[in-house]
Batch of 2 targets.
Target 1
Amino acid sequence: MQNHPQPATVESNQLSPTERSRIRRCADRASYRRDDIYRLIDDLKTGHIGFVSDGLPVVIPMTVWRVDDHLYFHSLNKSRLHKLCEAGAQLCISFAECSEWVLAKSAYHHSANYRSAVLYGQAERVTDPVEFDRAFEVIINQIEAGRWDQVRAPNAKERKITALLRMPIDEGSFKRRQAGPSEEPEDMELPVWHGTVPVCPFHSNDKP
């Protein structure tokens, strides 16, 4: 792998679905476009990292962010996750945001509007100090513009105990639902409201 991730190109904007990443149920909601996946990652910066440890599945929620065509996340040096990545373990990293509850006239058709992405790959430790700083500069400045230049950079001790890990965004898929309720014709006369409601005020269209 290259030490410095390269920006996406027009030719690479579409991920090629694989047997494990292809969406089969409600395939019309699927996308393999990097633009859709990248927007969700950049909005959330929180992913669930799945792996197998000692024969058992493990999923850990962590801060996960993107620089160009790579995901970055960090753990303590020599942690379980770090050791597994160094050994070439396969990872599954998922992102999901539910923005609206979909209320229907039948219990069965209640649903949710959401964005989600599932990515697969292997991660390696970043050893280049320039890339190390750049990765953390990106996320800190995304949280607050210009903050990296105001704070103290990581010192030698902090760099030593931090395992910054990088995974290329090469395999995965995106899925979205953004619609009202699906109803059975015979339910339409039921005297109950149906529609969508925001999951929380942060997703409401109402302005203060």
Target 2
Amino acid sequence: MVVVTDTGVMVAAVEACGEGFTVGAFLVICVLVLLALVLIHRKRLRERKRQEMEDWELEYWPHRMVYEEIEAATKGFFEENVIGVGGNGKVYKGVVRGGVEIAVKRISHENDGM
């Protein structure tokens, strides 16, 4: 409601501005709390993964990969990528993201090593 006097108009404007500030401050606080919760969750997840790693993984880098990454790196275990054959299967050359070269031994269940 707007009062026609000079002081009434100023008071009404200040009250409207105050309510907007309160709502804005509440939203900012909510966003900050949500951001803090997300960061805490990510930190706990990272710590949990680190606990699952073995000592040699911490020294070098985590060597756990999903099968799809390995298959993509070796181009579907393409025969031209074979760099060796052992008692239990073939060894394939592969390149993972970032250009790191890897060797992957694909175990063959047809030969039991004897």
